[in-house]
């Protein structure tokens, strides 16, 4: 299943602030299902990367303690017209990607 | 686009996003490995040892840690760490000291990135949030207590 991402970014003075909202339950594996008494299986995004014009700028690793529907705010050195790509992958193998051209 | 409409659109996950992400696009590059040892650690020191090979960090005033003094909902605690004043920032981690697994997330930066991270994390109880910044091969930290009225881990 692919993970849905919405992102935007704007460059100012060579530094671009990139914001993204990712739609994902971020199930840590610790939350109990009260009906069955068993925990909900872990399903969270654990690997995130940000690329500027295809070159890696940020590598992130997340645990299940990042909130559901995660917000990602980062700053990269990039100018107007540069392409910023966000790739994410979850512990169960789901992947998602989105890219924007900076304003 | 205005911030408001961006947020609204995202919550509803607009039809456009669904179309764009309908399984047609897969990440082209191989994603990095996940540091299981550090994230599974139950103690702050073990987590830092697993991630950085050391647990000793010096407190630094150059790290700006923005976190709410009182988080009404521990499941969504906004945290912003700005270490762009420091030179050679290689990595930023967020540690919630009393969470069952304290290490929340780790960001490592290449030269094209600024030492800045903004995110939202889950917190189980009132505790200190610690920002760990690795710059020039050394670890620095900033701490702030966040009071949690409703926990966000399990339950």
UniProtKB/TrEMBL annotation, chain A:
Pfam families xref list: SoxZ
Residue ranges occupied by any Sulphur oxidation protein SoxZ domain in the UniProt entry: 7-99
InterPro entries: Ig-like_fold, Ig_E-set, SoxZ, SoxZ_dom
Name assigned to this protein: Phosphatase
């Amino acid at each position: 299943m692919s993970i849905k991402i919405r992102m935007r970014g704007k460059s100012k003075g060579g530094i671009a602030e990139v914001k993204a909202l990712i739609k994902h339950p971020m199930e840590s594996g610790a939350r109990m299902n009260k009906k069955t008494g068993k925990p909900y299986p872990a399903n969270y995004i654990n690997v995130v990367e940000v690329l500027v014009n295809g070159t890696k700028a940020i590598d992130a690793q997340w645990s299940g303690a990042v909130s559901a529907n995660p917000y990602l705010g980062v700053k990269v050195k990039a100018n107007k017209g540069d392409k910023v790509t966000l790739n994410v992958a979850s512990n169960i193998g789901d992947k998602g990607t989105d890219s924007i051209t900076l304003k | 686009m205005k911030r408001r409409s961006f947020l609204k659109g995202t919550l509803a996950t607009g039809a456009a996003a669904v179309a764009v992400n309908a399984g047609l696009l897969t990440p082209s590059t191989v994603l990095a490995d996940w540091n299981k040892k550090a994230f599974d650690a139950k103690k702050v020191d073990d987590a830092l040892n697993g991630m950085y090979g050391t647990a000793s960090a010096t407190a630094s005033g150059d790290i700006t840690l923005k976190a709410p003094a009182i988080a009404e909902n521990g499941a969504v605690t906004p945290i912003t760490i700005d270490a762009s004043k420091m030179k050679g920032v290689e990595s930023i981690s967020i540690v919630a000291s009393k969470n069952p697994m304290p290490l929340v997330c780790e960001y490592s930066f290449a030269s094209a990135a600024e030492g800045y991270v903004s995110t939202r994390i889950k917190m189980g109880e009132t505790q200190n949030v610690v920002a760990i910044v690795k710059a020039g091969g050394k670890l620095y930290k900033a701490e702030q207590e966040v009071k949690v009225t409703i926990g966000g881990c399990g339950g």
